Amino acid sequence: MPEQGETDELFDVKTHFYIGNYQSAINEAQKLKLNNPLQKLERDVYVYRAYIALKKYGVVINEIHGASPPELQPLKQLAEYFSNPSKREAIVLKLDQQISGNIDVNNHVFLLVAATIYYNESSFETALKVLHQSDHLECRALMLQTQLKMDRLDLAKKELKTMQEIDDDAVLTQLASAWVNLTMGGEKLQEAYYTFQELADKNAPTASLLNGQATCCIGQGKYEEAESALQDALEKDSNNTDTLVNLVVLSQLSGKTPEVCNRYLSQLIDSAPDHPLVKEFHAKERDFDTLALQYSVTA
């Protein structure tokens, strides 16, 4: 991180990454002419993370090798975790061994990768245990997200206060504030909406920010505004998981025809077969088939 008073040459790259503008983060990073080896390494971290977010796992797996810096090695592990479901169990077992030994708590990339994997495995307590070892703002933000996932709004509020004390103006802190307000609901939904809107106006209206706004609108019963935001998000990324999930939910809430809802659900099944909503849908289908079979046997 840059010293106080120094210009952060990676500021635009980080901002694009945090708001979900991944291709722009990569493009911006490739334009930079950096001389400082630490800045070059930090740039590479964000570039590879952006490729992972874009599901371009092969780039990361092929380019990071045994001689790559230790800060980059965990990113290959993360790309392998997401790209190969059959290897996930082995990757988690290896991770269990890594965190039980002596880990470099200054390597925040490893902490973020480990916590991200545990988060995706629904091992939230372990994710928090890993992240608790760092004061890096990204680690704090992921802690807050994990606490919200665990329905621990009380802990998330405390974490937000810590983030605001570290850097109140940071994009990550602003996003964290919006996530907390979104979870609180009620009149706080409008505050969250304005935060997402302000970030979109200052930077770019990404699918991530538009989904944030749409979720606020759904919570306020403003279904037309929510649909408009989600259609904009769909144009930016037709396979964005959050967009498709929100469109499925919105289709049901706003009384769309079953065909419309099923269309979005089919897209979600294609693009994110491991999503909890997809798994729940398949489980209900199996239950229905079992029930139907019982009726056909007794009929």
From TrEMBL:
Give the protein's recorded name. Coatomer subunit epsilon
Principal subcellular localization:
membrane
Quote the cellular component terms of the Gene Ontology held in the record.
COPI vesicle coat; Golgi membrane
A single MF term (Gene Ontology):
structural molecule activity
List the membrane topology term(s): Peripheral membrane protein
The encoding gene: EOG090X0A8E
Gene Ontology BP annotations? endoplasmic reticulum to Golgi vesicle-mediated transport; intra-Golgi vesicle-mediated transport; protein transport; retrograde vesicle-mediated transport, Golgi to endoplasmic reticulum
Q: Which family does it belong to?
A: Belongs to the COPE family.
